[in-house]
């Protein structure tokens, strides 16, 4: 699949490189979940300029330096002494930057934490002494959210405050997904677009896997994911175990419960055998950035009417099917699991469709606030509205019901809900009420 999108990120990285090469060295931190396209982006941004790319694998420091030296010699065409520790190599690279303008990419930077934590403090000292005298465009990237946050945002850590720029990559926008699907299947239907969004959440690597194999509809996507050697089968585990460490079991169970519709604290704790989970939910939200609280729009921060949702669409899908039906995978009953996913697809993708429309609204930049609304703590209240968007002018509101098929819409019931919301919270607003279905994608 060709390189798509990222125009703003590429422009920002180009500007940073110009500063690095004309003024003095710059340090850029690039974060984002695994498979989000960090490495592809930095390679694209460094095209046609001298670049050394160092991938930090969890191994012996001396062996790592040996491999790095080989890479630097080849990519920068320069002599590199033999080093057994990375701090001395980094000193050499910064000194080289006095005589040569080049990009230095250090990928999976957080892995130094497991190799030798002292590297970070030694790098800080070297960076502070050499950055104003050299012309190195240093880009460090990492996919373990908690560790990258700790390294660069924790005031107690040596590299705190050293980054000139911190960029976080997000999934593809809805418009880019349309462009990609149109390139690979010009006659795609909106249900094909919804399937791509439901299964990938717009994560570039997952989109690429599907497109490279010409999987452009729901059936072919599910069939590909359930091949015996499919990378999707273990992807969620690979994504999260690095984050959670040895205690991943409890977090997996919580994420699985939320992904399967247990979205209030009481429901989640009941699913977990009555254990108190306030602390773990807080960590999943604040430290790992994997879940978020949903409250009815206009409700106060201390409102008890709270629901939890998994932010990452792919993880929602993975926990809903690949963890819940792990026994099917263990006995290689891929056909059986395929039938379950396909039979459940209409229901599950309906939830993804609501998120899709919220995302489109965010991308429009027309709104000051976007949320949902319901009355009371009961998640099955009659007066529940899928999407409420407050326009930036502060005078208008969009109130929308989301249905896969417009034929399932009940206008009279929706009108009652809108009126309840008007009386409760939207008095004074000009209300635009709409049905949003796959026809509106």
For this entry, give a set of tags.
441 residues; Rossmann fold; Trna Endonuclease, Chain: A, domain 1; four-stranded mixed sheet; 11 strands; globular
Structural features, described:
With 441 residues, the protein is of the alpha/beta class. Among the domains are: 7-168, P-loop containing nucleotide triphosphate hydrolases (Rossmann fold), CATH 3.40.50.300; 365-440, 3-Layer(aba) Sandwich (Trna Endonuclease, Chain: A, domain 1). 49% of the residues lie in helices and 15% in strands. The chain has helices at 7-22, 38-45, 61-76, 86-96, 112-115, 118-130, 145-153, 174-184, 190-200, 204-212, 218-225, 232-244, 248-259, 265-271, 278-286, 313-323, 326-330, 334-364, 411-424; strands at 26-31, 51-55, 102-107, 136-142, 165-168, 291-294, 307-310, 367-374, 384-391, 396-402, 430-436. The strands form three sheets. The protein has a five-stranded parallel β-sheet, with helices on both faces. Helix 1 (7-22) packs across helix 2 (38-45), helix 4 (86-96) runs parallel beside helix 6 and helix 13 (248-259) packs across helix 16 (313-323). The longest helix has 31 residues, at 334-364.
What value does the average pLDDT take?
93
Record the strand order, biggest sheet: 2-3-4-1-5
Q: In CATH terms, what is the fold-level topology of the domain at 7-168?
A: Rossmann fold
Shape category: globular
State the separation between the terminal residues, measured CA to CA: 23 Å
CATH class of the domain at 7-168: Alpha Beta
Structural class given helices, strands, pairing?
A: alpha/beta
Total count of helical runs of at least 4 residues: 19
**What's the CATH architecture of the domain at 7-168?**
3-Layer(aba) Sandwich
CATH superfamily of the domain at 7-168: P-loop containing nucleotide triphosphate hydrolases
Proportion of residues in extended strands? 5-15%
Gyration radius over CA: 24 Å
Low-confidence stretches: none
SSE succession: HEHEHHEHHEHEHHHHHHHHEEHHHEEEHE
- Total strands: the figure is 11
What kind of sheet is the major sheet? 5 strands, parallel
Assign a percent range to the helix content.
40-55%
